[in-house]
Write a structure and sequence with these properties.
By secondary structure, the chain is an alpha+beta fold. The chain has helices at about 15-40, 60-75; strands at about 50-55, 75-85, 90-100, 105, 110, 120-125, 130-135. The chain has a domain at about 50-135. Strands 2, 3, 4 and 5 form a four-stranded antiparallel sheet that branches.
């Protein structure tokens, strides 16, 4: 940018074009440096944890809802239907589990025995979720 000629007033000089050029250069440099700092980040990605849940005959609807909420915090969707109670004890349940990567598995209607709980789980093998129900989890 040339200095203004003698006799010109400040308002008559076009400083805007030069300012745009400087701002554009600073913005490009700033983006370049922010990308470089992002490349040196050495944090490892979070590894999902294996989950094993027991469904027992003494579970209530509130217990099932709390289990669903806890799993949702880990990126696992847990849904259930075909639930039946007899004398306050859970008798049957059908479960569906969906993992964050889209893996889905639905159980058959399962009987819940008072002496042995019904289990379901999600285990990760080489980062891929494996969903199991009942005896599959043993």
């Amino acid at each position: 940018m040339q200095p203004p000629a003698l006799g010109l007033r400040f308002a008559e000089v076009n400083y805007l074009a030069a300012m745009r050029k400087i701002l554009f250069t600073l913005a490009v440099c700033g983006l370049s440096f922010s990308n470089l700092s992002g490349q040196t980040d050495t944090t490892s990605p979070t590894t999902p944890q294996n989950v094993m849940i027991e469904i027992s005959a003494d579970m209530t609807r509130d217990d099932l809802a709390a289990t669903s909420k806890t799993l949702a915090e880990q990126g696992i969707s847990f849904r259930y239907d075909n639930i039946e109670w007899a004398n306050g004890a859970l008798q049957t349940i059908r479960m569906a589990v969906k993992c964050a990567d889209g893996t889905v598995k639905v159980s058959d209607v399962m009987t819940v025995n008072a002496d042995s709980p019904t289990r379901f789980g999600v285990t990760y093998v080489q980062g891929k979720p494996q969903i199991c129900f009942g005896k599959e989890c043993d």
